[in-house]
Fold:
Amino acid sequence: MTEYLGAIFDLDGVLVDTAKYHYLAWKQLADQLNISFSEEDNERLKGVSRVKSLEILLSLGEKDYTENERKQFMEQKNEVYVRYISQMDETEILPGVVELLKQLKRQNIKIALGSASKNAGLILKNTKLQNYFDAIVDGNDVSKAKPNPEVFLLGANRIGIPANKCMVFEDAKAGIEAAKQVGMLAIGVGTIKNLPNADILVNNLEEIKLSKL
Ligand code: B16
Ligand code: MG
Structure:
């Protein structure tokens, strides 16, 4: 048994690997604007909002763009991204995810999604993960991006569990910071190099032992 009563999950990089689709969609825009954009550059976009992602991408080039142009770029990128995620199914769920969700349910631990993505609903639907969640908080519900803890606090609120009784599963540094700021247990999915401040670090959710948390 664990002392925690709530579990909040980030989506991209924790439940599914959609970073590859974000990359392909941003890359298409970068090529069109003659900006060199590598997979390494894409690392900086993980966990970051769409607006901030565009800002980072454009900072790799030299030209300035108007508000209107930026809006169009985001729409264009999103159209390409949505085309990719529309093809997703259960086979793209990361290792250990379903087993952990089932275990949490058996132990009556409330489950929330806390994602920056405005496309979270479509991804959960296509991968058939949505029914595991007691509450879904995504980019459509919050105005402040991680490391601001708004998304996790709203998640905790919607499942009715105090912040210090929630554990957060995150693959982005900004998300770990957000969770820690409000006293949640920050479980990092990734490497010590990327997530040095995580309370607990795992390579994937298969490694989670609820009894040890
Ligand atoms: P969208 P997460 C984040 O999701 C992604 O990691 C990040 O790369 C993306 O820019 C952001 O969602 C916004 O996504 O353009 O679909 O609204 O990791 O917080 O689940
Ligand atoms: Mg993520």
The longest helix spans residues 67-85. The chain has two domains: 6-16+91-212, 19-85. The chain has a mean pLDDT of 96.
